[in-house]
């Protein structure tokens, strides 16, 4: 039996009170009790504050740093008191059996492996547009497109269906330079490097209902995040500096060609913006101002 499994559910949100309401309401249907719920709010208006304080008094409400998703996740982490943490986006519905399924998996893991679960991250899939989305590894360019083979060690998760031991945040935090995109890949690859293990529980499923709100805000950052995170993985996590520098050249050329193909000559400005963001992330990571 599990000696302790108290789940802190963290929801990072921005200007999506209607979506957030569905997410919060779904938590009440969990067949396994939720220890605490934390909302970290990056909204630019007071609608979410009013919603939470008026209808969900049991929720820990935090004003977010408004610097992007990485910083907002870390803001939520500061408030956790549970033994385990589940991040769900504000447009996700928690599966009624999700946490109970995770508990059953962990109990079986302890019986079979006789191992400590304090270094174990469990990920399930998420149901998205009618399809089950499982974690995939990154290809050379950083796209998560490579299915794991049976028995292969996982390095990535589906963030909306991943349960983390709280101990992992003593060693690894989210990169606060990342406004949007690939923050979970960066986190989990570093967590694995730090000695944590990721296991797949195929039966633990949450539902993603993608919201269109904020997409225009986040869109300019996604490509830059992928390039920066993949470079960082090669350069720092894997400590393969030559591979990382070669990757930057290939990724830059690939992004330029793809952008021009899709958007024509106007794509030059978009590619320039992406490279400028990547350069700023790399500079802040490796040449921080004192």
Description:
The relative contact order is 0.13. Strand 9 (136-138) and strand 10 form a beta hairpin. The strands form 3 sheets. A 7-stranded mixed β-sheet has the order 3-2-1-4-11-6-12, sandwiched between helices. It has a 4-stranded mixed β-sheet with strand order 5-13-7-8. The chain is globular, with a radius of gyration of 19 Å. It is α/β, with parallel strands linked by helices and 290 residues long. The protein is built from 8 helices and 13 strands. The model has no long low-confidence stretch (mean pLDDT 95).
Quick structural overview:
With 290 residues, the protein is an alpha/beta fold.
What's the CATH topology label of the largest domain?
A: Spore Coat Polysaccharide Biosynthesis Protein SpsA, Chain A
Contiguous uncertain segments of 5+ residues: none
CATH class of the largest domain: Alpha Beta
Could you tell me the mean pLDDT?
Answer: 95
Distance between the termini: 49 Å
User: Helix-strand pattern, N to C?
Assistant: EHEHEHEEHEEEEEEHEEHHH
Number of DSSP helices? 8
**Residues in helix, %:** 40-55%
Strands of the widest sheet, in order across it, are 3-2-1-4-11-6-12
The number of E-state strands comes to: 13
CATH architecture type of the largest domain: Alpha-Beta Complex
- By secondary-structure content and strand pairing, the structural class works out as alpha/beta
